[in-house]
Amino acid sequence: MAEKATIYKATITLADMDRGVYGDYNLTVALHPSETLERMMVRILAFCYCAAENLTFTKGLSSVDEPDLWLKHDNGTILQWIEVGQPAPDRLKKACSQAQAVRVFSYGRGMDIWWKSNAAAIRALAKVSIHYFAADELQQLSALADKTMKLSVTITEGIAYVSTASENITVSVREME
User: Which domain of life is it from (predicted)?
Assistant: First the structure.
């Protein structure tokens, strides 16, 4: 029998000073059996950096035809296709044909190798922007993971200040060059 996803609930109070986005979000996030807590927390952080009214989590790892998150217009047009990890250039090219903008939030071991191997192909895709997180900061973020999370996230100058009732951490997003 296949393992089932583990459900996490996150209540997020967001203040994105960079974009002028403020709000409270109640997220239900499924942790796929093959997914790490770090990846799930990066998905939540990607949600915070891209927060908008119609931004939703998709089937993610369970579907090869969908990104981790997407922002759709009311008419069904995909405004943003948001990937987490180190996607292949072919996947990003396909995403570019379906969405107005493609954002990648990269992290993890081998990220430098992935970028060196794929930078030229990805740079050729005008709709794609690549962002990455430092490993040590993500370890601190992963430590905040709990089945029921209450997070306060303030984003200013590209830095996310993430707080719980007992901890405060910072996570910086950087753009690949």
Answer: Bacteria
Domain limits, the chain: 6-175
Task: Give all strands of the β-sheet with 168-175 in edge-to-edge order.
Answer: 21-31, 6-16, 148-156, 159-163, 168-175, 128-133, 99-106, 78-84, 69-72, 55-57
Q: From 111, 92, 110, 109, select the one nearest 101 (Cα to Cα).
A: 92
Output the CATH code of domain 6-175: 3.10.640.10
User: 102 near 95, Cβ under 8 Å?
Assistant: yes
What are the angstrom distances between the C-alpha of 39 and each of 36, 78, 98?
Answer: 5, 23, 24
